[in-house]
Request: fold
Amino acid sequence: MHMTIPFGYSADFDIATLGTLTAVGVTDAQVTTGAQLTFQVTLADVGTEVEIRFEGSLDGTSYFNLDSANANTILDANGTTGYFLMAPVRYVRFRVVSITGGTPTLSCKVGAV
Reply:
């Protein structure tokens, strides 16, 4: 029987690519066993601003904002930013909520312990 080890299961720090978005939408979910998550977002070609959200789920169907205040994050400059969250969830994904101006490209990776 072949068994897939979930992302974040090993004692090492695991990294997975969630994907790249160029429009409002969401990446595919990544299964994780990690409770300590670090998201890395790289933004290029921003117009005015981009609103993003890191989402988690316990069942892979219903997702919620991983920010404890249920707030989204606004990015208004090109570059790479990082976000550390204590989030014991089974699934994670990255969402672009809105884009104001420009044709941005957002790439997101997640690391877990």
